[in-house]
Amino acid sequence: MSRPSRSRWAVAALTGFAAGAVPVSNIAARRAVGVDLRSVGSGTVSGTSLAAVAGRRALVVAGCFELLKGAAGPVLVGRHDPVGSALAGAAAVVGHNWSPWLGGAGGRGISPAMGALLVSAPAGAGVLAAGLAVGRLCGETALGCLAAYAFVVPVARRAHGWPGSLAGGAVLVPLLLKRLLGNEPPPSPLGRTLFYRFVFDRDTLAKPPTPSRRAGAGVGAGPVPADGGRG
Q1: How far apart are CA 20 and CA 109, in angstroms?
Q2: How far is CA 118 from the centre of its chain?
Q3: Among positive and negative, which fits the CA dihedral 109, 122, 10, 1?
Q4: Side-chain half-sphere exposure of 101, counting CA atoms within 13 A
Q5: 16 near 87, Cβ under 8 Å?
Q6: Cis preceding-peptide flag for 187 (omega within 30 of 0)
Q7: Cβ(191)–Cβ(155) under 8 Å?
Q8: How is 165-192 classified by DSSP, letter by letter?
Q9: Using an 8 Å Cβ cutoff, are 157 and 165 in contact?
Q10: Which end of the chain has fewer CB within 10 Å, C or N?
Q11: 3-class DSSP state of 96
């Protein structure tokens, strides 16, 4: 590995992290309705929570920027450097999931992961989008996303070769870590909680209450740890 390669990969990772860390959904919620998404519903800074408190128009606008921030690093690197592109994509998801601007809070990383894969492995982005859409239609977004996680690497490899599997695997690691770690340390019993988090992306079998636009404005909205909000 040459020194120029290491330097280029470091720049790619830092660029991806810096772009991913920008809390677009939280900024949009603050500007639209004066709400910090960490204080409502699940406490997850995601498009799901944003739509609940500020409406679908805010979600669409913020969602476009969430995709763009995931794509920024891989675009800078280019598809001619699969390793650098994969690092940049993974770093964007890490920055989004554990943003330093939010004290380590964040979303679940689906949007920046799709943005990164749109550049480096478009078939993988399609798998994530399909899982998200089908899960929402069925009322269990977490299960749809989990199914997508199982297929994103094989599909990306089949469509794009080893660079596709590398890109898919790189974003998959922080996606799964955030799913297990959640927004707060898992309560006891640990094994059961981790199972629920892995399968349903929440701490219990029962779904947490969904924040309403009224709650988002500050009426009766308290954080519910480790939810199913994705973004």
Answers
A1: 9
A2: 14
A3: positive
A4: 19
A5: yes
A6: no
A7: no
A8: HHHHHHHHHHHHHHHHH-SSPPPSSHHH
A9: yes
A10: N
A11: helix
For the record, the structure tokens of 193 come out as: 């909680």
Is residue 156 within 8 A of residue 167, CB to CB? The reply is yes
Token look-up 């859409």 returns: 133
Among 109, 85, 87, which residue's Cα sits nearest to residue 96? Answer: 109
Residue 178 backbone class (left: φ over 0; alpha: ψ -120 to 50; beta: rest): alpha
Angstrom distances, CA of residue 109 to CA of 79, 93, 115, 147, 227? 21, 5, 10, 16, 14
Closest CA to 231 of 175, 170, 184: 175
Residue by residue, pLDDT tens for the chain (231 residues) are: 556 677 888 988 999 999 999 999 999 999 999 999 988 876 788 888 888 899 989 999 999 999 999 999 999 988 889 999 999 999 999 999 999 999 999 999 999 999 999 999 999 999 999 999 999 899 888 899 999 999 999 999 999 999 999 999 999 999 999 999 887 777 778 888 899 889 988 888 877 666 555 444 443 344 444 445 556
pTM for this one? 0.87
Residue 145 identity? C
- For tokens 């772009």, the residue is 19
77 Cβ neighbours under 8 A, 6+ residues apart = 8, 12, 84, 85, 88
